[in-house]
Specification:
Elements (H helix, E strand, L loop, with lengths): L3 E5 L4 H12 L3 E6 L18 E4 L5 H7 L5 E4 L13 H22 L5 E6 L7 E4 L3 E3 L6 H5 L15 E3 L12 H20 L3 E6 L1 E3 L12 H10 L5 E2 L6 E2 L1 E3 H13 L6 E5 L5 E2 H12 L7 E2 L16 H7 L7 H8 L6
Parallel strand pairs: 1-2, 1-4, 2-3, 4-5, 5-9, 9-14, 10-13, 11-16
Antiparallel strand pairs: 6-7, 6-8, 12-15
Helix pairs in contact: 1-7, 3-5, 6-8, 8-10
Length: about 350
């Protein structure tokens, strides 16, 4: 079924790949994008000529109302991402992520589209991932203290008995536990979208992206992902600086897989709603990722340097159970980690 889809943030890293995927599948695509200067210094040269582009802010209710004309499904990618620089970013994060989403949902409710709303969320909503204690079972560790991190005690202990914990893949029904400003805004987006679904009957699919990497990532920005930051260092002839001891586990998923997940969510049966991890299902340490990327640059590339430093808002381990997306949406990641990293080493960035 061909849909008329609005993709907010469709000029950005993930959003532009979503646009490409939807156009290739025969959908009619309209893009609303601010081209925020934190992410774009100029209009990108990779924009899909088959899509229609509207420049403006998702917080502009009149513009959003007009842009929704004729649309029967929405893929909401527009967002400020990453940890940012410091708490001074809080107002910008809330304005763009929360108020922007609220504006979109209000205008969308007045239109009552026949198709679904797909919301780009993030694994950051989980805080620390899933942990198991040999005595107390599944537990939710407290945020790591500055004193522990300064002492190099990076692994969170059991909050009940203090024993060591084993990390496990986090499922979608894990409790939400945001531990930084960005994470708090993503949880708020999810809650707003869920309320919208209950009150309007419009199906909502919430996609919790894990660590996305690939072509068109922003470079040289405090809002960029860790893979982009490491690559920028290697291109400058410098060692990637790995926080903590490099053993923190993540799930790195290629952006083309993320785009396919969005298309699957838009095309799936309307009754299939709720949250879905979008991930490879294969945990990899940050240190291993840095080594793989350096290897892709060749033998003469600087080797990653494990610094022991930390960021207070970071979590230790979070990686995904990807089974629900496969069962309900028919989505499974296809790009192998080593293949994706080799491509990423020379792929064009933004």
């Amino acid at each position: 079924m061909t849909r008329r889809v609005l993709v907010t943030g469709g000029s950005g890293f993930v959003g532009s790949h979503v646009v490409d995927e939807l156009v290739e599948r025969g959908h009619k695509v309209r893009v609303l994008d601010l081209l925020h200067p934190l992410s774009h210094r100029r209009e990108p040269d990779y924009l899909n000529p088959e899509a229609e582009y509207v420049r403006g802010d998702v917080q502009d209710a009149d513009l959003v109302h007009r842009t929704l004309e004729g649309v029967d499904a929405v893929c909401h990618q527009a967002s400020m991402v990453g940890l940012g620089t410091d708490f001074g970013d809080v107002i910008d994060y809330v304005r763009h992520n929360c108020l922007g989403t609220a504006t979109l949902l209000r205008e969308l409710a007045s239109r009552k589209p026949g198709g679904p709303l797909v919301l780009a969320s993030s694994m950051v909503v989980y805080g620390e991932g899933r942990y198991r204690c040999e005595v107390d079972g599944v537990v939710n560790p407290a945020p790591r203290s500055r004193a522990s991190l300064e002492a190099g005690r990076f692994e969170p202990p059991c909050p009940r008995c203090g024993r060591a914990l084993a990390p496990e893949a986090v499922p979608e029904d894990a409790p939400l536990d945001p531990r930084n400003v960005y994470a708090a805004t993503k949880v708020h987006q999810e809650h707003l979208a869920s309320a919208f679904a209950r009150e309007t009957g419009v199906p909502v699919k919430i996609l919790r992206y894990h660590n996305v990497y690939g072509p068109r990532m922003p470079r040289d920005s405090p809002y960029a992902g860790v893979a982009s930051i490491f690559r920028s260092a290697l291109e400058a002839g410098e060692s990637p600086l790995v926080y903590e001891d490099g053993s923190q586990l993540r799930d790195f998923v290629h952006v083309r897989d993320v785009a396919r997940a969005n298309a699957r969510a838009l095309e799936a049966e309307a009754a299939t709603g709720g949250a879905f991890n979008v991930a490879s299902g294969r945990p990899t340490s940050v240190g291993e990722m840095a080594e793989a990327l350096a290897d892709s640059f060749g033998h003469s590339a600087p080797r990653p340097q494990v610094t022991g430093s930390y960021r207070l808002g970071d979590v230790r381990h979070v990686f995904a159970s990807a089974s629900r997306a496969e069962e309900a949406l028919g989505f499974r990641a296809e790009v192998a980690f080593t293949t994706g990293m080799r491509e990423f080493a020379s792929a064009p960035l933004r």
